[in-house]
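Following up on my earlier thread - several people asked me to post the actual chain instead of describing it. Fair enough. Here it is, all 169 residues.
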Amino acid sequence: MCLDVDGVLTDGRLFVDRDGAEGGRVFHVHDGFAIHWFRRLGGVVVICTGKRSKAVTTRAQELGIEHVIQGSSDKLADVLPLLDRLGLGLRQTAVIGDDLPDLPLMQRCGYPIAVANAVTEVKRAARLVTEQSGGHGAVREAIEHLLRHSGRWEEVLAQYGDTESAAER
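Reply from S.P.:
Thanks for posting it. Predicted structure:
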């Protein structure tokens, strides 16, 4: 899974102080929870973002995300060699995006996902458009969708004592 940051893992707002220094970013805990489970079930997570931020580095480290590309001006060109090194194909990859820089990667991946507040062109390219906006649990929603679709969500639920299957609900 390849994730954008601004507008996907965050709500897209950037905090800049009066001296021009970038402030922190706000990440949603539900997204982090889902990323944890996606990785625990064997998924590989890549962050690819056009900006550079210590906050992104810190959050990726907190979540155990080893593959972080920052300052990308061409996400497709930057992600393809990484996937190749990992022995993964772009067709095996879900991409979650919100804006035009995500579009070339989304158009070539196996499962393109747009967050609810994505631009129209990105939504058109997506197989799934989340109900949640970026920074408000959209990544959690997308990961849960993928895990349910692959039959793996029950493994997550079982860890929390939910023995009632989704089929029984």
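The mean pLDDT is 93. That should answer part of your original question.
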